[in-house]
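Page 47, continued from p. 46.
Same chain as before, 321 aa.
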Amino acid sequence: MMMSAVTQDRYGTTAVLANRNIAKPEASASQVLVKVHAAGVNIADWAVMSGLPYIARPIYGFRRPKHAVRGTDVAGTVVAIGSGVTRFRPGDEVFGSADGSYAGFAAAAEDELAPKPSNLSFEQAAVTPMAGLVALQAVRDVRQGQRVLVNGASGGIGTFAVQIAKSLGAHVTGVCSTRNVELVRSLGADEVIDYTGENFTETGRRYDLILDNVSNHSLSDLRRALAPSGTLIPNGGNFGNRWFSSAGRLMAGKVTFRSGGQRIRNFLVSMKAENLLALTRLIESGQVTPVIDRTYPLSEAAEAIRYVGSGRSRGKVAISV
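Result:
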């Protein structure tokens, strides 16, 4: 059986993406075959399309992507299961991660899927996995009353981080542009800083945790805004550095933060089911709701990736299949 999919056979701009009819994948023993209803768009999809940073090519593929079909975030219905799968049955509605979600069908590892939150549409569920789990794992150790600042609070990760930090009892400050102030305030932020008129590193206020999704301030300036025992999580892609992206900034930070009580922390997001279920509990309790800026049909996936890569999206972008 054939299906429509968004594929690429070389690195470059959105011009390398093509909508093609290809063979439907099959589920291995530990996989679930999902009929895709919606997919989420992440800056990571733009990065893989572009082949950036170069240091990641051993993971992506040296000359071309190892996985020809783009997309990872997925929401849909189970249509078949592998012989070793025990948690799902055909007909189950699921969300999570699957290589090649910009397609009619996608095969996903059983332990990277969870039941779709009951109060979300397929589009809302599809935009949740990567951005929601990055935000969850970045701020999940926040304690009641701590001061948290989210730089880039109106973006895909930022909109989740503001809500999750609030659910943990933090005092949350969101940083965004003028047009997004009301959006960030509506997510529960206690304070919102419009970066076009105020630089949060120069206000004299100190924060226990700074989640930096933008990388538009020097490490020394960010340290000035941290409490004496505060933690910085540098999450901005910084793809202007085509070789190392944010990895170079992180390495410099390890040196900068070597002395004193302040810390710099990095992590690799885990897409495992246990983390998806933790996110689901927040969503179904009404504490977290995905923010969708735009939804594109599968035939316009290239435009969806271009828009996310522009850095102008408010919240998340979905693809309806």
